[in-house]
Input
Amino acid sequence: MKFEDLELSPDVLRAVADAGYTVPTPIQELAIPYVQMGRDILGCAQTGTGKTASFVLPMIDILTAGRARARMPRSLILTPTRELAAQIAGNFETYGKYHKLSMALIIGGESIVRQVQKLDRGVDVLIATPGRLIDHFERGGLLLNDVKILVIDEGDRMLDMGFIPDIERIVSFLPKIRQTLFFSATFPAEIRRLADKFLINPKEINVTPPASPAEMVDHFLVPAGMREKLTVLRRLLNAEEVQNALIFRNRKRDVDVLAKSLKSHGLSVAGLHGDMSQPSRTETLRAFKAGEINLLVATDVAGRGLDILGLSHVFNFDVPIHAEDYVHRIGRTGRAGRRGRAITLTAPDERKFLSAITALIGKNIPRLDIPGISGPEDGEGADEPRPATGPEKRRADGKESRRGNGREGRRRGKKAGPPPAKGHDEERANGAPVEVDKRKPRSRPKEQVVGLGDHVPAFMMRPPKKPTGGP
Output
């Protein structure tokens, strides 16, 4: 099947051809005809399957007939993250360039005044994140009673981020008679409940088994202790043919730490997380997509919905806590018919998360052996403490010396002394004299110390001053 067989308008087909596409993906082939018919859709599709175009293309044709009124959008698209919202907006700009549809992007981190100005002029397509949309609604700058099409994208991520109460509230403001398109990569019980509540006689479309990894992605495990992961990652970056890569961490603060560490080793890297300002996030994404940055360290929230052309690798520095996030992470690569590689660094403490992932995808993830990298076997020695150096070593040596001259020395029946200084073994082997530290260790007080003991500050030992003068 070709796009010409989907009964899209000539202007949309011309824009699709300009973008270099001729054959629809499975989700597009199945969903577009039902969207054109006005049916509700319940779609199960992973990222990278062309899901966005499956509702953008028919929506452009549907919204061509009609005109928007001030503060009353004709369609509403809800997304969990700003990046995904911006990506969808880019799709409307690409495929709707031969139409005169108006569009507004309502997300946090951007000027609310400019957003109000766009809404006042009237928009055909409103793309928003839940929080900022409710903000506009409560300010009285938005009316939703003229929405004809509602799209909820990444429903499972909405659930993970706690947006479900906001979604239910927003839907309560919409007309009862509308077309609803609900997309999610997985369908837990709560998502099923929402679908039953929001949709009327929906057409269910499943292009892949729920929560299955992308077919074009080769994924591997590399066992490594938590303290070894940074070294292992740098070796992997050298061993693999990495053109560009996303590196996922579970916490926002760890994103900055890892990005700074990799940058100190001369790598082209930047961080992306929710605490960054919107202009900074936008500029970082632009630089990464343009190839000015090769590595992007991100959290699940920031990385969700990223569409990077030709992304060669995904590295999971931390095993995702939620098994579904593994599917979404590795779905960043292996897109548009190109193969990709996803490598997960796993520590012994992360076994339970790894077990949940393998149970979800229904198969084990093979181990990747890289020359020079030997992971811990069954977690043994994975998180052994590092040898103390510098001041830590001196403090540790002092503690061992005092411990050896105390109970341990008396138990062994011999006089224990301080440990030999570094290099004594080599001196003995060469027949050279060995200098021994003859300083005696401090003896412990025989009686129990009460109060400050011998460590009374000098100012407390001074005699009190006699009062001078009189009234």
Q: What stands out?
A: The chain is about 40% helix and 15% strand. The first strand starts at residue 41 and ends at 44.
